C-alpha cells in the first residue's frame, strides 16, 4: 500500500509454516515477549488476532548471522570510555555475562560515561553498576523497536496495545495526491526513504544534466550519461498509485546514494504518510461519539486527504474446438450507449470516463450446440433466420469501479508474448478514480487513535479559535484516558508550537522531547503553556465554557474506505444448491 508497508513486509519473520507452530495450538508463552527479543525482534509490531506473537518483525538494527541467529549491535566500552569505532554484533547467548548500558547514558566529549553509577542489563536483569564495569553500550534508543514502531513520536508515553495499533495502521495509510512531512517526527523517516524501492538513488556521483517528469539524466566524471526512468501512475498490488517526481535540478551535483526522486508517500526524501491538521479535543453535538471523527469541509475542497486508486480489469481470449473468442466492437444485444467508448477494434479508448455497465473490451464467444430458448425459437420462426451462434461475453465495468481509463495492456501470441496453451490474447484495462475523504472512511493518528468520519461540516459550522481559524478535525476527548495513549496529546501541543514557530521537531523514541521542553516551546510560540485555548461556537458566537486542547496532529487516511465496503442489492445471484442468495460484495450477494 505504501513504502512503509513494503519495507516492513521485507523484515517480517514467522513461527508458522512447515516445521513451525500451529496457530490453533500455540500457547500463551510462545506468543509472549521474551527478554532475548531486545534489539532483535520488535516487542510492539505484531498483528492483532490469532497470529499475535507468532508473526513478528525485525528490530531496527537486527542482523542475521550465517547460522540464522539474530544479532544486535553494541559499542564496546573500555574502563568507562565508549569506543564508537568498535561495533560488535552479539547474539542472545553471547550477551550473557556482560554489563550492557542503555544508549541514553550520558557521555562527555571524551567519550567517557559521565555518571559513576548507572543501570545496566546483566543476564537479562536490570542492575546498578559502576561505569568502569560496563562492557557494552547500546547504539541507539530505537534499537529495540521495529521501523514502523520507531516512526511513532512519544512512543514512550503510549500504552503498548495502542502503540501496536499505531505501528500496524501506519502500514495501511494510503498515499495522498500531495504529501506533507510531519511537524513532529522521530528522525527515522529519512532512513526509510533511503531503503525504499519506491525511490531512486544515484548509482554514482555526477552532475544532473536533464530533468523532466519522465526521466533524469546524470553525467558522471568519465562523461558517461546515465538515464533514470521515473515510474508514473503505476498500480501497486493494493490498487494505490506509485508515482515518482524529481527532487533534483539541472546543474546540481549529486553524490552516490543521494535521492533523485520522491516516490509515493515521500516529501523531500522523508516518509510522509499523512497530513498535519488542526485538531481540537472536544465533543460536538454527539457527532464524535464512539471514536467518530468530525471533519472540516476544507479537507475535501482542498484535496487534503484525496488519493488516487487504480483498478485493473482483465479479460482472456480463449481458443477451443467449439470456436474462438473474438475481439469485436459489434456485440449482440448491447445498447449503443454501453459501447460508446470503444474503438474500431472493440477496446475502450484511453481517457474515457466509464461507469458501471459500460463495455471495456468487446468479446463474443461461440454458443455451442446448446438448446435454443423458447424466445429464440419463436424469434427465428418469425424472422425466418437461424439463431445467432455468438454470445456476448464482454468485459464490463464492475459496480463501484467507475473512473477514467488510464492505460491498456495487450498481451498476444502475435506479438510474441508467452501465454498458456489455449489462451490467444489477454487485455488488461486500468481504471483510475480520485477519492476524496468522505463519511465512512477510516482515519487515524500515529498512536492507535483510530476513528471513522461521521460528518463533514461546512467551514462556517466548525468551531473556531479566537483569531478566527476554524479547526480541521474534532476528536472525542473521552477516547484518551482509558486507552492511555498520551503520546497524541504531547504530539498535539508540540505540533502547535512547531506550526507557530515554523519549524520541525525531531523526537526519537525513548529519547524524546521532555515535558518541560514542550512547555518552553509553547511559551516561545506565545501559547498558554497548558496548550489549551478557548473555542468559539459558530452557532451562538459565544465561547465554549471550558478551554479545549488544540494543536496540530499528523493524521493518516487508511486503506479501509467506504467506497470499497458499501454494498446493496435488490435481486442478484442465488446459490445453485440451496437457492439462497450468495454472500458478500464480490459476488453481488445478500449479506452473511
UniProtKB/TrEMBL annotation:
Instruction: List UniProt keywords, sorted A-Z.
Output: DNA-directed RNA polymerase, Nucleotidyltransferase, Transcription, Transferase
Q: Name one Pfam family in it.
A: RNA_pol_Rpb2_45
Which GO biological process categories is it annotated with? Answer: DNA-templated transcription
Q: What GO CC terms are in its UniProt record?
A: DNA-directed RNA polymerase complex
Judged by the first EC level, this protein's enzyme class is transferase
GO MF terms listed in the record are: DNA binding; DNA-directed RNA polymerase activity; ribonucleoside binding
- Start and end residues of each RNA polymerase Rpb2 domain: 1-64
What is the E.C. number? 2.7.7.6
Task: Kindly state which reaction or reactions the protein catalyses.
Answer: RNA(n) + a ribonucleoside 5'-triphosphate = RNA(n+1) + diphosphate
Asked if the Swiss-Prot or TrEMBL record annotates the protein with the keyword Transmembrane, the reply is: no
Domain DNA-directed RNA polymerase beta subunit external per the UniProt entry, residue ranges: 74-140
Entry keyword annotation includes Signal:
no
SUPFAM superfamilies cross-referenced by the UniProt entry? beta and beta-prime subunits of DNA dependent RNA-polymerase
The DNA-directed RNA polymerase subunit 2 hybrid-binding domain is annotated at: 202-587
Task: Describe the family membership recorded for this protein in Swiss-Prot or TrEMBL.
Answer: Belongs to the RNA polymerase beta chain family.
The protein in question is named DNA-directed RNA polymerase
- Give the source species: Mycoplasmopsis hyopharyngis
- The record's gene field reads rpoB
Amino acid at each position: 500500500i505504501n513504502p512503509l508497508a513494503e519495507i516492513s513486509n521485507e523484515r517480517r519473520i514467522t513461527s508458522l509454516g512447515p516445521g513451525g507452530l500451529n496457530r490453533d495450538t500455540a500457547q500463551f508463552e510462545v506468543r509472549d515477549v521474551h527478554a532475548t527479543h531486545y534489539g532483535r525482534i520488535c516487542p510492539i509490531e505484531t498483528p492483532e488476532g490469532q497470529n499475535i506473537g507468532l508473526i513478528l518483525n525485525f528490530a531496527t538494527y537486527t542482523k542475521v548471522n550465517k547460522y540464522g541467529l539474530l544479532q544486535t549491535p553494541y559499542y564496546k566500552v573500555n574502563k568507562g570510555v565508549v569506543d564508537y569505532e568498535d561495533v560488535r554484533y552479539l547474539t542472545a547467548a553471547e550477551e550473557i555475562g556482560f554489563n550492557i548500558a542503555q544508549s541514553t547514558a550520558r557521555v562527555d566529549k571524551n567519550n567517557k560515561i559521565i555518571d559513576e553509577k548507572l543501570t545496566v542489563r546483566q543476564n537479562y536483569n536490570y542492575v546498578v553498576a559502576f561505569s568502569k564495569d560496563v562492557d557494552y553500550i547500546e547504539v541507539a534508543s530505537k534499537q529495540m523497536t521495529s521501523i514502523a514502531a520507531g516512526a511513532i513520536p512519544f512512543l514512550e508515553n503510549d500504552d503498548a496495545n495502542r502503540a501496536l495499533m499505531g505501528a500496524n495502521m501506519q502500514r495501511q495509510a494510503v498515499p495522498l495526491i500531495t504529501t506533507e512531512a510531519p511537524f513532529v517526527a522521530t528522525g527515522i523517516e529519512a532512513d526509510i526513504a533511503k531503503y525504499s524501492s519506491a525511490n531512486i538513488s544515484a548509482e554514482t556521483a555526477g552532475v544532473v544534466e536533464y530533468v523532466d517528469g519522465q526521466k533524469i539524466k546524470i553525467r558522471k566524471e568519465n562523461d558517461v550519461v546515465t538515464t533514470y526512468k521515473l515510474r508514473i501512475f503505476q498500480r501497486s498490488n493494493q490498487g494505490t498509485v506509485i508515482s515518482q517526481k524529481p527532487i533534483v535540478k539541472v546543474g546540481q551535483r549529486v553524490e552516490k546514494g543521494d535521492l533523485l526522486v520522491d516516490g509515493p508517500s515521500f516529501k523531500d526524501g522523508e516518509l510522509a504518510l499523512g497530513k498535519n491538521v488542526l485538531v481540537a479535543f472536544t465533543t460536538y453535538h454527539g457527532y464524535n461519539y464512539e471514536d467518530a471523527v468530525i471533519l472540516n469541509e476544507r479537507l475535501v475542497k482542498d484535496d487534503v486527504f484525496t488519493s488516487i486508486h487504480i483498478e485493473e480489469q482483465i479479460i482472456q481470449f480463449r481458443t477451443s474446438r467449439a470456436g474462438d473468442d473474438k475481439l469485436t466492437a459489434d456485440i449482440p444485444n448491447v445498447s449503443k450507449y454501453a459501447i460508446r467508448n470503444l474503438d474500431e477494434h472493440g477496446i475502450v479508448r484511453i481517457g474515457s470516463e466509464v461507469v458501471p455497465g459500460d463495455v471495456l473490451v468487446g468479446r463474443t464467444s461461440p454458443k455451442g450446440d446448446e438448446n435454443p430458448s423458447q424466445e429464440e425459437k419463436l424469434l427465428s420462426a418469425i424472422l425466418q433466420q437461424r439463431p445467432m451462434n455468438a454470445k456476448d461475453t464482454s468485459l464490463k465495468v464492475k459496480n463501484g469501479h467507475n473512473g477514467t481509463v488510464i492505460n491498456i495492456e495487450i498481451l498476444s501470441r502475435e506479438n510474441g508474448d508467452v501465454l498458456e496453451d489455449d489462451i490467444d490474447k489477454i487485455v488488461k484495462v486500468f481504471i483510475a478514480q480520485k477519492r476524496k475523504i468522505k463519511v465512512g472512511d477510516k482515519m487515524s493518528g500515529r498512536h492507535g487513535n483510530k476513528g471513522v468520519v461521521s460528518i463533514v461540516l461546512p467551514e462556517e459550522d466548525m468551531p473556531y479559535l479566537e483569531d478566527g481559524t476554524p479547526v480541521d478535525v474534532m476528536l472525542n476527548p473521552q477516547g484518551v484516558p482509558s486507552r492511555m495513549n498520551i503520546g497524541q496529546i504531547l504530539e498535539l501541543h508540540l505540533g502547535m508550537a512547531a506550526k507557530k514557530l515554523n519549524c520541525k521537531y525531531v523526537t526519537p523514541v525513548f529519547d524524546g522531547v521532555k515535558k518541560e521542553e514542550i512547555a518552553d516551546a509553547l511559551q516561545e510560540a506565545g501559547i498558554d503553556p497548558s496548550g489549551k485555548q478557548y473555542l468559539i461556537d459558530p452557532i451562538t458566537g459565544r465561547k465554549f465554557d471550558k478551554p479545549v486542547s488544540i494543536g496540530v496532529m499528523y493524521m493518516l487516511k487508511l486503506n479501509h474506505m467506504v467506497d470499497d465496503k458499501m454494498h446493496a442489492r435488490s435481486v442478484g445471484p442465488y446459490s445453485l444448491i440451496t437457492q439462497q442468495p450468495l454472500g458478500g460484495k464480490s459476488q453481488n450477494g445478500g449479506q452473511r
